[in-house]
Amino acid sequence: MSASDPPSIAPVAAQGAPLDLALVRERLDAKRLGTRFHYFTEISSTNSHARELAEKGAAEGEVVLAESQSHGRGRLGRRWESPPLANLYLSVILRPKLAPVHAPQITLMAAVALVESVAAFIARKAAIKWPNDILVNGKKLAGILTEAVCVPERVEYVILGIGVNVNYPIERMPEELRQRATSLMDLTGIDVNRESFLRRLIQDLDRCYGELEQSGFEPLAPRWEAHFGLRGQRVRIELLEQVIVGRARGIAPDGALVIEGDDGTLQKIVAGDVIPLET
Ligand code: BT5
Known about the structure:
- It is a single chain.
- The protein has helices at residues 21-26, 46-55, 104-119, 184-188, 194-215, 221-226, and strands at 36-40, 62-66, 88-94, 126-129, 133-136, 139-151, 154-164, 234-238, 243-251, 257-260, 266-269, 273-276.
- Helix 3 (104-119) packs across helix 5 (194-215).
- The chain is an alpha+beta fold.
- It is built from six helices and twelve strands.
- The chain starts with 20 loop residues before the first helix and ends with a strand.
- It has a seven-stranded mixed sheet with strand order 1-2-3-7-6-5-4, with helices on both faces. A five-stranded antiparallel sheet has the order 11-10-9-8-12, with no helix packed on it.
- The radius of gyration is 19 Å and the shape is globular.
- Bound molecules: biotinyl-5-AMP (BT5).
- Biotinyl-5-AMP (BT5) binds next to helix 2, strand 3, strand 6 and strand 7.
- Biotinyl-5-AMP binds next to helix 2, strand 3, strand 6 and strand 7.
């Protein structure tokens, strides 16, 4: 650098310290999840890597974690913003004893665990937006990407991917997210301990997953419903070949979203994007 070059201090906000996994493991109270952590400073996508591990026979409960993702994925090819050393990006390998038709229950179970973990860290109410978002004040705090690989009669494995905005300042978000996303730091005004949140999340997932395996989704449904943010709201649902408009009534025992059409008929939706409408 010559004397006339501009100073090389990049105008980026301070970043946090790397995750201390020993701290997470130390007091982790979980039976099946978090048996092993595969930790990366940077990775393309934790879901993609977990899938490779699962194909090679990785055990249930192994977790892939990264400090940043170059190609963090949302649903339907969307992007998940994954800046370094601020948030949590993890994928858990599950091998549930489930029929393929019940695989979406993993997302619902994870939403219960995630919303309950979040509730322990913030004073405001966190809501589930069916099927896979956690919102606070209508802004997205976390998202779930569940990818199931099935053989005809059963689920072979599920990759449960979770992204949570922890210490992600609004000003570091890309422009298009600033009005629509939030983070634990944004909501609490403090730097949130990522190890504590991760430990809590794995424990809550471990318990909810145990309950799902033992008794199915029905006993978890009231907890899901308690955080359902769209009850009674008029919504538009975009399916691949159809658009449905109606009022969100809740979820069916199998985890499908129940919509009441304008003519009073009830319809079950198993997958799709829900867009809240004004009236
Ligand atoms: C999701 O998809 O919400 C699922 C996100 C799952 C991310 C995790 S991170 C660990 C694991 N490995 C992966 O590769 N993925 C999982 P979807 O419902 O399709 O929402 C995607 C939309 O959320 C984007 O189109 C943006 O509008 C918005 N978005 C992107 N990044 C965000 C962020 N960091 N915070 C809040 N909103 C975001």
